[in-house]
Every structure is written in C-alpha cells, then in structure tokens.
Amino acid sequence: MNSVHTTTPGAKKNPILGDVLLIERAVSGDRLAREQLAVATFPRVRKLVYLTCGNRSELDDVVQIAMVTVFRDLPGLRNFNRFTAWLDTVVYNVVRTQGRKRIRFASIFTDLDPAPESSPLEITPEDENIGYQLLNKLQHHLNKIASRKRSAAIMSLFFGYVDSEVAELMGCSIETAKKRIQHGRKELLERIQKDTGCAGLLKEAIQ
Amino acid sequence: MSSVQCRWVSHMLAKPPSEYWLEHEKHAVDAHLEHCASCANLVEITRLLEQIQQVELPQASPFLERKIVSAALEGRMPHKPKVRFFRKEIALGIVAVGAAVAGIVLMLNFLFTAQTSQQVTHSSPMDSQSTARAPRTVANGDSRKAYNLFHFDASPPLKLTREDKVWGVRDTIVNIEVLSKELTKLELLRGKIVARVTHRHSGEKFIVAGPMGSVEVVGTVFSVEVDDTGAQIVRVLEGKVKVTDAQSGAIYRVAASQQLTIGAGDPIPALASQLDKDRGLMRSIDSGSAQKEKKISNISKAGPAAQRAAKISNQPVVNSVDLASQAIDSKRLFEAQQHIEQAKESATQNVPGLLARLARAYRQQKNYAEAKDTYEQLIRDYSWSPAAQNAMVALGQLELNVLDKPREAQSHFEEYLQIAPGGYLSEEAWIGKARALSREHRNNELLQTATQYLDMFPTGSFASEALLYRGNSRLQFGDCRLAQKDYQTIIERWPASPRAKEAQKGLDKCASNIQ
After folding, report:
1. So what's the pLDDT on residue B433?
2. Residue B469 pLDDT
3. Looking at residue A17, what DSSP letter applies?
4. Nearest CA in chain A to B353
5. What is the pLDDT of residues B78-98, one digit of tens each?
6. CB–CB of B45 and A199 under 8 A?
7. Predicted TM-score of the model (pTM)
8. What are phi and psi of B300, to 5 degrees?
C-alpha cells in the first residue's frame, strides 16, 4: 500500500527531481542547473501531458507550453522539497487552460473527438512498444471520464499522489479529492474490465 | 452473484490503497471473490493497475527533446499559424451545407458500389495461398497500405466484378486501386498477370497500370508483366488494348498476337512460344475456377466444424492474433488454438500472451489437462517471455490445487524463483512451494521455506500462512517455544482470521506438550 509521501513523488525514479541543491541553484538562475533540471523534468511533463491531454496531434505543443511555463515560473518556487508537486500543479493548470481554449473554438474549427477506437493506421516502432500501446489504450479510456475525476485518477495511479496531495494539486478539499480519486479509479477499472484487449495489454505490460 | 454486491465490491476496490479497510469489509470482499469470477478479474486488474507507475512512455526522439528543452530555457512558445476566424453563423452554415452534400454523395457511392465490392470480397478469400495479404513494403521498396493488395501464389484466379478474372504467377502482387461499374483499375507492382476481361461499353474501362505505363482494355485477353529490372511488357492474346507510356505520354494500340515493351518502341509481333505460355496460363484460369467450385461444394458438404476449419485456414495470417483473441473471449478454444498456430509464424511476440490467456480459459472451463498442456507449451517454447515465467507459477498452482501433484508443483515454483527471484509473482511462488512441501509433510524444507518467505516478505499477503507453516514445523520438531511465538504473532496480527483459530490450536498443543 502507498504511504503518505515524505519525499516528493518521482524523486526515487529520477533523483535529480529530488536534488534540493540543484533546484535551488536553478531557481536562483544557474544556467547549467536549469539545463540539467529541464532535461530531468521533460519525461515527467511529457507523460503527464500525454495522459491528461489526450490530443496526440497537439501533444508536443502542449509539452512545450508546459515546459516554458514551468521555467518561466521557476523563480517563484519557494519550497524546494516539493518541486515535483509544484511541477505537476503547473503542468496540470497548463493542460486545463489549453483544453479550455480548444473547447472555445470547437464548434468551428477544432475536432475534439477523443482518440479513435482503432489503433493508428501506420504502425510506428513507438507503437509496437507494449507499454506505449497500453498507455494509448488507457488514455483512450481516461478521455471518456470527466476531467476532474480523470485528473485525480491519473495523479493517484500514475504518479502515486495520496488524497491530500491531490487536493493540494487540484485546489479542493481532501474529501472532494478522495471522492474524485475513487470515482475516477472506479470508472477506469470498469472500462478496462470491459475492454479485454486493454486488460490483456495490462497483464502483459506489468507481468 | 448479485450485481448489488458486485457494485459494492467494485466501489471498495476503487478506493485508493492508502484507504484503510475494516476487517469485516475484507472478509466480505474475500467471500464474494470466491464466487464471482468477474470481481476476481477486477481484483487482478486493480492489482496490476497499482503497478502502472512502472510503465513509461517510450523516450522522445533526441531532436524533439533538445528542441523543447531549449525552447523551455529560452522561453519560446510553439509557433502557431494565424487562423482567420469567420463569423460563427456563416461558418456553421457552410459546414452544415458541406456536410449535407458530402452525406448525399457518400450514400450514393455506397449504394452504387455495394454490389460491385461484394463480388471481390466474396471471391477474394478463396485460397490463402493466392489471396494472402501482401507485406506493407514490396520488393522495390514501394510502400502501400495493405488493404487492397493481393499476393498471388497459386492457381485460383481473382474474380472481379462483371465476371472479369485475373490470374497471377507466383509472387505477383497487385493493388486494386479502383473497382466500380465504370472503372476497374489494377496496379501491377511485381510479377505477371493474365486477365480475362468482359466486353466493356464506351465509357467503361478496365485498366492495368504498371511502373512504366498503363494498359486499357475493352473486352480482351492479355498479359502484363513487370520483371525485376522494372521493364513492363504487354502481350495480347485476343482483342486489343490501348497502352499509355507514363513517361512520354505516347499511346499505342496493341492488337492480338502482338507485344509491347513500354518505353522500347512500337508494338512488335509476339513470339509464339510466349503466346502459348500465356494461353497455358489462361487455361489454368478455367481449371482454377473448376477447382474453386469444387472446393465450395466440398466445404459446404462438410460439417460446421470443418467449414469453420476451412474458413480458418483461408484467413490471412495478419489477423490471426485478433482472431485468436476473439475466439478465446468467445470461449471457442479449439478455434483459438488453430489461430495461435497460425500466429506463431508471423506474430511470435504475441503468442505467449495468447497461450497464457488460452490456458486460463481452459482452467475456467475446468479443462485442466488442456490447461496444463498449454502452460507446458508456453514454458517450453517461449521461455524468454514474461508470460512463460508467470505460467510456471500458474502451472504450479494448478498442479497443487487441482491435479494433486505437489512434487511437480514444487519444481515449477522453484523454477520460477530461480529465473525471476524478485519477480511479480515471487510471493505466490514462495508460498506455493511451502504449500507443496506441507502437502508432502517435508517439515525440514517447509521450515526453511517459510522462514525465507518471512524474511523477504514480513508483511506479505501470505505472512499469516507462512507463520502457521513455520509454527507447525517447529512444533513437529519439538521446538515449542519458537512455535508459540509464531502462533501468538498470528493471533495478535490477524485475530479474526481462520488462521488465528488454527494458531490457537497450535498453542494448546504446545501447552499440552510442555505439560
């Protein structure tokens, strides 16, 4: 079972994200430290955007916007111990803002339909990776869940945040965060259970 | 099992792991899971989903990473071209009209081509040798989507609309570009075809295009060949054809008994031997048709299983993975096995997962012998795959719990622990080994195994069971003091569990031994 985080989630996977000294130097403007931090941050931002954004054609643009926003707001970071939580908050807000912009013009120009049911027409080496196929399928199911429940489920499942941290990220009460996590997870589990292909991929990727 | 209980269980399972479950809730869920396969499946999915953090996206290309990182450091937003915005009402109006027109056109097209396309789809999967889907990249490096490509390999012809027939020599690849009443257009990518084309009225065309040019016919028999050098040769047996050179635009009319090499000048008389060869191939069209008809009658006379088997053998290999998967989901396990056999040749990486699912499906149907064979096949032939490793544990559990073969079960658990000592199912493998040893009353090894398990997983899912085994083993060896410790630990940590009752019995035995 997950215990309440005492260090920043993600620090175990990428120690640079938990290196307080490096973060402090980056915040103070050290160019080398900023570069190192940017390289270390990129995979996490990309994963979070991919899971929450759902529009593959704009994925790279949203990742770039998120990264630019992170490093633009970096001087405002005060608690260096909570870098990844702060990072995820910024990225989450960027994705939410981008999603609203797409909705505003949806009726005229933008196609907001979620990713199609079938796999892509052209199979790229990236697509052949089972983990990528699994995340693709999960993202498709996540897109069908309401956005707040989806975000809460993603934070809980993919990034290991507990309910208090999710509440802080999403700017809501802990009870609300708990409900969102639970409902989001429940809906996702039910969808995966019905999709035997996804369940099979999950077993193959994890086992 | 009631759906109300299932809903409650799914509600419980959706709770985050940090949420504490009351003891009675755990018992209620456990009791429900013993009878409900669907909820048991949900538990497995939940457990796997808890590990999802370990799944990462494939790395982005270094170029993309450098681009985005440097943009982030320099504060550059992505470039977006300016979009002109129309007034919303005008834009909506244009979109609505366009959608209506497109819908009408599509409907007409669908109604018109429904009949013509049926013949091809009906006639195409006649023989897997002649109509297997071609690879995406052909020999000259040209890439095509594999939807309309046909790879000829044997005699039965490809029957198109209006009784047109096309036969190809071995390794010929043809792309059906257009198939409609007015126009039938084939693209010959490699090899040689002989075509018998029914008479066309003016405005109706049958075209065979090649790399050098196209051949347009109006009711004739001709051959078109693209050899390895890329030269395209057209030879006419009956009627006449119009050949257009793609490079120069020159048009040639090739009459019966003439041939033309596109780009090499005017038509010349064809060699008699070549014409005979083409006629011989043409005759095989008719014999192929007869064979085809014979095949149909044979299949229809066979029973449903043989018909299904015949249909299965005609399926393109590319789909066999999906077909196997569907067959497993629909519990048609014999059919699934055959699809898996086909998939072994082309999609080896998918086979272990399919075999694992097939074995589980056999177990669900209580066909334990088949399940065992499938697991053994998976372990033997695909030992490199994670599915095969997990199959060792699954087979061990099957042999222990159902087939009552603890010795074999123990060997499979030990095999897993040797190959994947820290694997996902290592807890199950350890406790499985302990159970097998307990069944055979091998107390010495049981004590060692239980101790090892508890050292590695002191708070593991099977800790209470391991403690009980260790306590019982110690009791057998007369070490009541240590046995009492184990029993008391069980009673303290799991007071309401059935193991606590067994531990209490163990304590009573210890007490009587001491006395």
Report:
1. 94
2. 94
3. G
4. A204
5. 765 444 455 566 778 888 888
6. yes
7. 0.39
8. -70, -25
